[in-house]
Design brief:
Layout (H helix, E strand, L loop, with lengths): L2 H11 L4 H17 L4 E4 L9 E6 L2 E6 L12 H12 L2
Antiparallel strand pairs: 1-2, 2-3
Length: 91
């Protein structure tokens, strides 16, 4: 998928299929970073339960609210994190 295709998918699914739109937003952020555009996530302090993805396109900034992760941090350490990844990968 290209950045252009991801942006089209966002436009097509916005306000109709939030699950598909949210996946496309995250993909677009990744693709924008690959192209060298500034992109990232910031907290919206007026709506802290909805972080915002920003992409700086050559034509201007675009952004979308995403839902907050439903579960609280479980307290894992960095070592535990990578142990979990290794277990998942079957190492």
């Amino acid at each position: 998928m290209t950045l252009e295709e991801a942006l089209q998918k966002i436009k097509k699914t916005d306000r109709k299929d939030y699950e598909a739109r949210n996946k496309a937003v995250l993909r677009a952020m990744s693709l924008a970073l690959e192209k060298g555009y500034e992109a990232g996530i910031r907290m919206d302090y007026t709506k802290p339960e909805y972080p915002v993805v920003y992409i700086e396109l050559p034509t201007g900034q675009v952004s979308w609210h995403l839902p907050e992760h439903r579960k609280e941090w479980d307290g894992h350490t960095t070592e535990e994190k990578y142990n979990r990844i290794e277990q998942y990968l079957g190492a």
